[in-house]
Amino acid sequence: MWMMLLYRITEGLDNGLGLTPPMGWLSWEKYRCETNCKKHPKSCINEDLYKRMADALVDQGYKDVGYEYVNIDDCWALKERDANGQMVPDPERFPNGIKGVADYVHSKGLKLGLYSDIGTMTCADYPGSEGYHDIDAQTFAEWEIDSLKVDGCYADYKDFNVEYPSFGKALNKTGRPILYECSWPLFTPGYLLATDVIPKEVAPNCNYWRMSFDIRDDWNSLILTVNLFALPEAKTSMIPASGPGRFNDADMLLIGMSDGNISRYQAQMALWSIFASPLLMSNDLYNMPPGTKEILQNKEVIAVNQDPLGKMGYPMHPEDGTSATRVWIKELQSQSGRSRWATVFQNFLTENATLKLEAANIPGWTSETKFTVRDLFAHQAIGGNHTSSLEAEVAPRSVKMFLLTEQAESASSASRRFFSVPAYLNLIVFLLCTLI
């Protein structure tokens, strides 16, 4: 069963980074590879874009709730390396170089991410890092980047188990802390069926890794990604691999990228938090539709994503990855000895659905367990103490997200037990006295 997971990874990439899922902003899905800055000055890949988004993270409160990475994606470099074999930032679009962008981002109390590829070229045909691991790692460290995404285009997937660890070791060797994202096992045929690859090979060598192809800003793409995380293979591949310093990446948060449906955006935020996936936005932070900023800055949902246990949640009932309705649960760090679980009631049907979570199906709980319920989007408690189960009606194509907290014994029952002990001792003393 989903909850009967017999082992967990004990070691991740030895760099001490990414103990909770990374949070920040990423340019790819919103801005792609637009390099014509004369025609598109506000939406091209240049240093001004990343400086503006760094400003927005700070000025609009995103940094305050945990978003700290500003990530440059593909298309930042010239098409050729220099005479020393080093990558070169496009001088017209990055006149101050990547180091200049890093300095600016760091001045805001943020971190800078950069992009490369494990193959000979990037996915947009810029220089890749194959054969240049040491040179590129040292170059990136000298530029003082804080995170590196390494894509998997133009590479032989059969060499991923050599190339990705090699690049990770080269990064560590520089002495600069650089968070390491891999596109491995993505690009590997049948990677979900090879269930030991992620926990035994990928997780020990990467801080986080892509599990799905690029997400799009529509329901079909969201559903496909969510279904992947619900596959039966996840219980032996993704779930055991997830933990501090190592996370399954469900791809970018597209919340606010367009005038999309608020329910869909809530669904992505809730489920990505249940998955313990990185929260990397791809949007225009200066042009956000109403209601989207509130979703992205929901502290209660973010707390589920950032829970220090780093566990990936799972659907309560085994399935084949095609269910439209699910109840997901995720174990959280206990508080004052009381266990806590987050749950998402998912309804991707086009009609209302009533979903139910049985307390007895939560590991360590029984049908008699008392618990409180808090709605994480409504920001309010639901009733008093609950027992046995939690049931909710979920609107079409939407989710509800709750925090369940186990309750201690009531004060009255604890008091009865406290006072019963002296009474019992008094009886013993009385009997002893009568015998003397």
CATH class of the largest domain: Alpha Beta
Task: Report the portion of residues in β strands.
Answer: 15-25%
Using only C-alpha atoms, the radius of gyration works out to 25 Å
Largest sheet features: 8 strands, parallel
* Major beta sheet, strand line-up: 7-6-5-4-3-2-1-8
Task: Give start-end ranges of low-pLDDT stretches.
Answer: 1-10, 410-436
* CATH H-level superfamily title of the largest domain: Aldolase class I
CATH overall fold name of the largest domain: TIM Barrel
Principal-axes shape call: globular
Report the CATH architecture of the largest domain. Answer: Alpha-Beta Barrel
Number of helices: 12
What number of domains? 2
- Structural class of the secondary elements? alpha/beta
Number of distinct beta strands = 16
